[in-house]
Every structure is written in structure tokens, then in C-alpha cells.
Structure to design on (479 residues):
């Protein structure tokens, strides 16, 4: 303790903030004092940094969940707007402790599930217009290998859209969003063991000749087994 | 079903990560610019979807108030632009914004119809609220038309100031009746003359040489000698005397 001679009030204030959270920013950020508003220009800068760092991940996640480029662009844009609107209400502490990768992914997943629930209340429109595009990156060695990967990508992209919802989310978040198992569990709100099991069942269906082969659109809730 | 199979599968899956389309940012972020106009200067906010917000500069204390209000109302990040979208300056000078693209996505279909119809009112002319109500096939929704115009997010460019009451009164304006008069003055509308004629019973104006009946202020009448102008209380009166409706201003109403 460096400031033993400080007035009692200050010491008391320091203890008050030191106990519950480790993230407090000095004596005045005790819970009774409203957090200072973050200037809008600062929020905008934070948001743009998040956008630049995560836009490919958010878009790819949206693409592999929806299976359609047009839907994925809508979903990614809507998710980032929701993220911005939430950020606007954050104080400095919340901004600094934010885990943006899991947070943004959770927004995408929740938004997608809400849309699906809304859509499922309407008469079914089977995704005959679905254009599942693998869109693999170009910088890969060898033309033949590239074609091979492209074909495999097309096949997997189509199969992914056919996985039951929770398996699809787990596989997409883990291998396309590149989230660690712990963050996938956090986003899905379930134990890591459940995530591992969902992933393992999902991968089994995705293997060539696996139980998922030939399935174009599985119903939700694991109806196809 | 081996670990090697899974490694191959996982490496194949990672290929499904792709770059976001380059225009994704444009769907999220808005830009703003300050534009000088002949009567009022305005703040304009826009994105690739079009112009979403216009605020007369004199109604706010400065850039900060405008940008804060925009972020609050639209929930989008907002950055300063080098200039407004093409055509905004010209639209302010000429009073016609028909070629501009507007983003009215937060508005109801009814509001979009009302605003789209108001956009067609030429500079220097006025129309009553009931004219818009008739134009959009909702002749009884006169009050709702007023409310929709009151919520116009892109005033001045979509000229809700050109919509007035049919009884010879200016009607309300979101930024005050004084600005409404100022904008109409700037376009050469002699508000007092128009209203005094309407109050004397000339709800429609005709050209007795061409036997055509118009809405008050229709510019077709500019070329008509004063001696040949005459007023009508109703379109039925005009029709009974053999006047046909002007195809330019398409008069509707009683």
C-alpha cells in the first residue's frame, strides 16, 4: 500500500472499489457514481476497429449458417448494427472487458435463430432457390488441388446447411468462426461437453458417405437421425 | 472414421471462411455533409442505400447536435464525408430532388407513399394535404397525410413545405411555420396572395382560353394572361362549365 497517509475517505473509497470487481477504474467508479458516458466518436472508433477485425468471421459465420450469400449479407449487416446499438450504451469498463469475438458471434447466432423462428411461423418455403457457394480462397497451391478443394468446399457447404440447427451452429462456430470450444459453449449457453458431442455428431454427418450424405435440408430439433 | 479423416474434414471446412463483401461497411455506416442552399443550409446524412436524414442547419446548434441526434435516431455510426451525394447541391438550388436516392427504410409503406407523392410537387407550387390523400388513393386520410409529412426525415429535399391546408392556411411544419414560409418565399410562392384567393373561394384556378382547370400555383398558369384566369369553388363547378383537368398538376378534391 503506497499511500498510507491518504485521508480516510480516499482509502475507504479505494477499498470499496477494490473488492467486487477487478476492472474498476479508480476511486470514483464506485457503483453509486454513474459511469461517464463514452463520447459517440469514441464508440464509433471502437466499433470500426471491431468491424475491421471481425467482419470476415461474422460474414463467414452468417454465410455458413444461412447458406445463401444474400441472406448472409443481410444477417451480417443486421448483426453489426445491433452490436453498434449495444455498444452505444456501454461505459468504459464494459468496453474494456468486452470479449468481442464471442460477443459478436452470439449476436449473429441469436439473430439468425430469431429469423428462423419467425420464418418457420410462416408457410414453409423450401430453399429451392438456395445458392450455396463455397467461395474458397484463391491462394492455394496447384490448380488441381484447388479444384479438388473447391469441389469439396461446395459439397461441405451444402451438407452444413442440412445439419440439424445445434450441430450446424457448433461446427460453424468452431471451424469457420474459429472459436475455441469454451467460447462456442458460452455462445450456445451449454456445457463444453455438449459442444464436443454436437461437433462430433456434426462432423460424422459431414464425412463423405456419412449419415448426412444426400440430406439437403434437415428439419430442426434433430428430426433426421 | 479416423482422426486423419477428421483432420482432413476440418481443414476442408476452414476453406469455407471467406472475406466479407467489400460493400458490407456501406450497409452499416452513414456519412454526413453540410450543404449550403439558397434559402436554408442543411445537414445531410447518407449511405449507399440513399439519403436518410436532412436537418436544416438553423434548427440545431452545430455539427455535434446534428450528429448526436442522428446516432440516437438511426442507431448507426456516422462519419464526416468530403461532400454530399451527387446532385444534392443542385437539388437544393433547383428545388427538384426527383433524381436523388432516398433511404426511407424506417418509414411505413403509407409514409413512403405520402413522401414519394410530395417529392413530385414542383418547386414554386403548393398542394393541399387532401391532394396527396387523393393521389395515394386514401382520400379520407388527410390527417394521416399531415402526420406522415410531419415525420419526414428528409425535409427540404422532399418538399413537405409545399403541402398546405386547402382552406387558405399554411399548415404546420416540423421546423416551424416561419421556416415553411421562408422556403416558399425562396421559391417564389406568394403565400399571402395564394391564401387570400383561396379564402375568396378560388380553390381551383382555371384558364378560360384553354378551358383547363388547375390546382392553385400550377405553373401552367404562369403563361396565362391575368384576364383569362378565373377561380372555381369545386372541380364539379369547373367540369360543369366544360373545363378539363390540367394533366400537369392533375387537380383532385371536391
Amino acid at each position: 500500500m503506497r499511500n498510507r497517509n491518504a485521508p480516510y475517505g480516499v482509502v475507504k473509497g479505494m477499498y470499496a472499489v477494490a473488492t467486487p470487481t477487478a476492472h474498476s477504474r479508480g476511486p470514483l467508479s464506485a457503483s453509486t457514481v454513474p459511469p461517464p458516458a463514452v463520447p459517440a466518436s469514441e464508440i464509433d472508433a471502437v466499433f470500426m476497429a471491431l468491424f475491421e477485425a471481425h467482419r470476415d468471421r461474422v460474414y463467414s459465420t452468417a454465410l455458413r449458417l444461412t447458406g445463401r450469400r444474400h441472406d448472409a449479407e443481410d444477417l451480417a449487416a443486421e448483426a453489426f448494427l445491433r452490436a453498434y446499438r449495444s455498444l452505444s450504451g456501454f461505459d468504459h469498463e464494459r468496453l474494456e472487458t468486452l470479449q468481442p469475438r464471442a460477443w459478436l458471434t452470439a449476436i449473429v447466432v441469436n439473430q439468425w435463430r430469431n429469423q428462423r423462428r419467425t420464418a418457420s411461423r410462416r408457410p414453409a418455403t423450401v430453399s429451392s432457390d438456395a445458392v450455396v457457394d463455397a467461395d474458397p480462397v484463391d491462394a492455394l497451391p496447384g490448380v488441381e488441388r484447388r479444384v479438388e478443394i473447391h469441389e469439396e468446399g461446395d459439397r461441405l457447404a451444402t451438407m452444413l446447411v442440412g445439419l440439424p440447427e445445434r450441430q450446424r451452429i457448433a461446427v460453424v462456430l468452431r471451424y469457420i468462426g474459429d472459436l475455441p470450444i469454451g467460447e462456442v459453449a458460452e455462445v450456445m449457453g451449454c456445457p463444453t461437453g455438449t459442444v464436443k458431442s454436437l461437433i462430433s455428431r456434426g462432423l460424422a454427418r459431414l464425412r463423405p458417405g456419412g449419415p448426412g450424405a444426400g440430406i439437403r435440408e434437415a428439419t430442426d430439433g434433430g428430426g433426421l437421425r | 472414421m479416423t482422426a486423419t479423416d477428421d483432420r482432413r474434414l476440418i481443414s476442408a471446412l476452414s476453406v469455407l471462411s471467406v472475406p466479407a463483401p467489400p460493400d458490407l461497411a456501406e450497409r452499416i455506416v452513414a456519412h454526413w455533409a453540410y450543404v449550403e442552399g439558397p434559402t436554408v443550409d442543411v445537414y445531410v446524412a447518407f449511405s449507399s442505400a440513399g439519403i436518410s436524414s436532412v436537418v436544416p442547419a438553423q434548427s440545431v446548434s452545430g455539427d455535434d447536435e446534428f450528429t448526436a441526434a442522428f446516432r440516437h435516431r438511426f442507431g448507426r455510426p456516422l462519419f464526416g464525408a468530403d461532400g454530399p451525394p451527387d446532385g444534392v447541391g443542385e437539388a437544393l438550388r433547383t428545388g427538384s430532388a426527383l433524381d436523388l436516392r432516398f433511404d426511407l427504410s424506417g418509414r411505413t409503406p403509407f409514409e413512403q407513399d405520402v413522401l414519394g407523392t410530395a417529392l413530385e410537387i414542383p418547386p414554386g407550387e403548393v398542394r393541399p394535404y387532401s391532394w396527396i390523400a387523393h393521389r395515394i388513393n386514401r382520400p379520407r386520410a388527410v390527417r394521416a397525410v399531415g402526420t406522415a409529412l410531419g415525420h419526414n426525415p428528409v425535409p427540404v429535399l422532399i418538399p413537405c413545405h409545399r403541402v398546405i391546408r386547402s382552406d387558405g392556411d399554411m399548415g404546420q411544419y416540423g421546423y416551424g411555420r416561419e421556416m415553411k414560409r421562408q422556403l416558399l418565399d425562396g421559391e417564389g410562392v406568394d403565400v399571402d396572395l395564394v391564401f387570400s384567393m383561396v379564402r375568396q373561394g378560388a380553390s381551383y384556378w382555371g384558364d378560360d382560353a384553354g378551358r383547363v382547370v388547375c390546382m392553385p400555383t400550377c405553373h401552367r398558369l404562369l403563361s396565362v394572361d391575368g384576364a383569362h384566369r378565373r377561380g372555381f369553388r369545386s372541380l364539379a363547378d369547373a367540369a360543369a362549365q366544360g373545363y378539363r383537368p390540367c394533366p400537369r398538376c392533375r387537380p383532385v378534391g371536391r
Observations:
- Residues 1-30, 126-131, 135-140, 214-225 of chain A have pLDDT under 50 and may be disordered.
